[in-house]
Amino acid sequence: DQLEEAHVAMLAAKKKKKQHNENNNNDNTTRVKLVATVKEALRLKDAMHVMEEQHAAELAHLTSQTQHHQTKVRELQTQLEQQDLLHASERSKLYLVIQQLKKQQQEETNNNNKRAMQEEEQQQQ
Fold this sequence. Notes:
By secondary structure, the chain is mainly α. 98% of the residues lie in helices and 0% in strands. The chain contains 1 helix and no strands. It is rod-shaped and about 180 Å long.
């Protein structure tokens, strides 16, 4: 009877030891997986930090380019406005010259007509 109890106790101890070993193996597997997960998370965090720095540098570059382009656009707009003013002034001068030429032409036509009438009167006399 004692032998049987000892045998049952030994089997129970073996079973308990086996369960303990399985638990240790499960704990070790979980620990390994957890370490791998933490390492991957740290790697991803570093990669994200590098990408954030790259994006910040790109954004700074694009902002600088945009400011340069806006300055260039303002300069070109100012040039266009100055050219428009110059052209308007030139058109105004041309208009005045044309008006003066028309006036002179009208005066010459009037003078020519007067002379022709005077010559006609002289011929009739």
